[in-house]
Design brief:
Elements: H1 2-15, H2 19-23, H3 34-38, H4 41-46, H5 50-61, H6 75-85, E1 98-100, H7 101-108, H8 125-147, E2 157-162, H9 168-177, E3 180-185, H10 188-211, H11 223-226, E4 227-231, H12 240-247, E5 255-264, H13 267-277, E6 281-289, H14 306-309, H15 321-325, H16 332-338, H17 342-347, H18 354-368, H19 384-396, H20 406-415, H21 417-431, H22 434-451, E7 457-461, E8 472-477
Parallel strand pairs: 1-7, 2-3, 2-5, 3-4, 5-6
Antiparallel strand pairs: 6-8, 7-8
Helix pairs in contact: 1-22, 5-21, 8-9, 16-22, 18-19, 18-21
The structure holds S-adenosylmethionine (SAM).
Domain Methyltransferase: 126-296
Pfam families: Methyltransf_32
Protein name: Methyltranfer_dom domain-containing protein
Length: 479
């Protein structure tokens, strides 16, 4: 626990002087001179022309490429990337806290389950990757839980999938590992889609078993009785024993494994709290997502939307008493950033969207027109800057106030050409903080579990980040 606290301290020390940078709005990039205000001097000194910006982007995109020799004339950029990478899971300041999937499997020894069924149907590549790995991990966890029950077997364990969605993970746990799963989702349409998918999946089983060169196993044919769904809101009053008995009659159902794949916003933290509060939940495997939807305890969200968090009330960050005692706050943009993936952005050489620049330029126009209020344009399909401005002002009801001609707009865009390229590099510089913020969120969750007395709680890197960016899972057992 002490080591996790030290790692949190070290990340907080790194983040704190940069919180303004991390939380700044790209909208104000030009009007508030973000480049000058936030970018370290060493980087500003070496990046001045469009050519420099293009080279800097290459350095950012190549950061995971072992064979890349960093551009020697951009030492400031290189040093910045190296410094930030120390504070990610696996970096020199946060070493040995997250387990690799292999390490976790080794620790499970005799309880270890593997995916044998080749069944890629009805899932995209990302989901398939996640499901194959997570189903085996949850099954291993259930096996470990069952082995610790006096006179209990895997038959007595029920998996609850919190936020089941279309039932990708839950149906595979039931189908491949013969474990009872109750998929719970608060959205009726999701439950109905999960049931339709289950029916389609059943038809695909014989072919998949054959393709995987497996013996016809009894539970491959029992998907209906092993995988059940229900539309419910999971909260602290959910009576899992009653729910499980209603869906799986017969037998005493009192040992649960709570799993959740991409439990968005506060649902992830609430699942961890549920694990702690409910003695019948003996194991948990939780992968979070959508950190921007979490509510924070120590900062008021300027774009707070109560309808978005009503399903999962409470605070998602911080969870540990250590960070709560410090009243630590991230801020909305920091949480937005944490949901980005630099691994994927680099693998795909993702160029930040032109729309960021268009919005920043529109802000220049607003300021010139004396428009003081801050406006949220939102997502918009547009063809070039002029079209973007026309559509935005129409959407905001400002067409009468913003009367600038097309010609002047094009002139403005040309005048800021260099700054618009610079803005893209700024975006990539700020993106370096993304995994650092996510690391802090994950360490806080792990520390919460350790503080709550669960020695056997782990952070495990389940997925390949380029395929599935939210790749870390919190896994814990109660014995
Ligand atoms: C990001 S989706 C993930 C779906 C699925 N697990 C997957 O990986 O494809 C999150 C799901 O959680 C559901 N959800 C959110 N809060 C919930 C709650 N408190 N109880 C039950 N379901 C919830 C949403 O309706 C949504 O289907």
């Amino acid at each position: 626990m002490e080591r996790i606290r030290q790692q949190i301290d070290s990340i907080v020390r790194f983040l704190e002087p940069n919180m303004g940078f991390i939380n700044c709005h790209m909208v104000d990039y030009l009007t508030e001179q973000h480049w000058k205000q936030y970018v370290p001097k060493a980087i500003r000194g070496e990046l001045e022309t469009c050519e420099d910006y293009l080279q800097a982007k290459e350095v950012f995109w190549g950061q995971f490429n072992q064979t890349q020799s960093y551009h020697k004339h951009l030492p400031g950029v290189t040093e910045f990337i190296t410094a930030a990478s120390r504070y990610r899971l696996g970096g020199s300041e946060v070493q040995d806290t997250a387990l690799s999937l292999e390490q976790f499997k080794e620790a499970l020894t005799s309880c270890r389950k593997e995916t044998r069924l080749k069944m890629t149907e009805l899932m995209n590549v990302k989901k398939c990757h996640e499901v194959e790995i997570a189903a085996a991990v949850v099954a291993s966890l259930c096996t470990a839980m069952a082995s610790s029950l006096t006179e209990g077997t895997l038959e007595d364990v029920v998996v609850i999938d919190a936020g089941d969605g279309k039932g990708y993970l839950s149906s595979r746990i039931a189908l491949e590992h013969g474990i009872k799963v109750l998929g719970i989702d608060c959205n009726e349409e999701n439950t109905s889609n999960a049931e339709k998918r289950r029916d389609r999946l059943k038809k695909k089983i014989p072919k998949a078993v054959k393709k995987s060169q497996l013996e016809e196993d009894e539970h491959f044919r029992k998907l209906d009785s092993l995988y059940k769904t229900t539309t419910q809101l999971i909260d602290f009053d959910s009576n899992l024993i009653e729910l499980a008995s209603a869906h799986f009659p017969g037998g005493h159902r009192s040992t649960f494994c709570l799993c959740g794949l991409h439990t968005c916003g506060n649902l992830g933290p609430n699942c961890l709290r549920l694990f702690h509060q409910n003695p019948t939940i003996k194991g948990i495997c939780n992968v979070g997502c959508c950190y921007h939807l979490m509510q924070e305890e120590f900062i008021v969200d300027e774009f707070y939307n109560p309808t978005k968090v009503s399903d999962n009330p409470g605070y998602g960050f911080p969870m540990s008493s250590y960070l709560r005692a410090r009243r630590f706050a991230l801020g909305r943009n920091a949480r937005n950033l944490a949901a980005e993936s630099i691994e994927r952005a680099c693998a795909n050489r993702e160029n930040p969207s032109d729309k960021l620049g268009h919005r920043a330029l529109l802000q220049v126009i607003f300021v010139e027109c004396g428009e003081k209020r801050s406006h949220q344009v939102g997502r918009l399909k547009s063809d070039g800057f002029v079209d973007y401005v026309r559509k935005s002002v129409r959407r905001l009801g400002l067409a009468e106030r913003v009367t600038i001609t097309d010609e002047s707009l094009l002139e403005l865009e040309a005048r800021f050409q260099v700054e618009l390229e610079q803005l893209k590099v700024f975006y990539l510089i700020r993106q370096q903080f993304a995994p650092v913020v996510e690391t802090l969120i994950l360490l806080d969750r792990l520390l919460y579990l350790r503080e709550s007395g669960y020695e056997r709680s782990f952070l495990v890197k389940l997925f390949e980040p380029v395929v599935s960016p939210r790749c870390y899972s919190l896994i814990a057992m109660k014995y």
